[in-house]
Amino acid sequence: MIGIFGGTFDPVHYGHLRAALEAKEYFGLDEIRLIPSAKPPHRDTPQVPAAMRLDMLKLAIEHQPGFIADNREIERTGASYMVVTLESLRSEFPGKSLLLFIGTDAFNNLASWYQWEKLFDLAHVVVLTRPNSLVKPLDKFYAEKQTQQTRQLREQLAGKLYFQAITQLDISATAIRTLIAQGKNPRYLLPDAVITYINEHRLYKS
Length: 206
Prior knowledge:
Layout (H helix, E strand, L loop, with lengths): L1 E6 L6 H14 L3 E6 L13 H11 L6 E3 L2 H4 L6 H11 L5 E6 H5 L10 H4 L1 E6 L10 H6 L4 H6 L5 E5 L7 H9 L10 H10 L5
Parallel strand pairs: 1-2, 1-4, 2-3, 4-5, 5-6
Helix pairs in contact: 2-10
């Protein structure tokens, strides 16, 4: 099975990395692909260019086996629609189960995504939940796809909805950017190699 973990990673931090690691180990993934969004259709334009966010991601996962910094959204023109990304991955890995990891907030707004129903034709959707996170009631479409058996995720290539609790690390990229802009030290919120890169390139400075 292959995991897909998208985001702006502006910058990547331990909240992202811990969630990805727990997901990889819990589901026994062959690999997990962290995919920086070049032009996120549901968010403001990232503060740092996509190529530099990819550089920071590569530094963050350099020594973690099975973690891959995937640049396919950066290489593609236009908005970074996840359904297009999954179509690309499906063509590359036709016989692999694909697990798309999203957070609770993203799941609650999934119906606003471009061709969102098609996501389930291409991958399983795994919602990573945190303590006190609220998931909206499941309608018939979701209820019919939900499973509590990881075996089904492995045996089928796509189509299931699964909820998995993960460790809560209350870290946000927004808070990190604010700290740096205020001249404060963001250490222990993200890898030292990423902090060094941020300092060398004077990113997020006010």
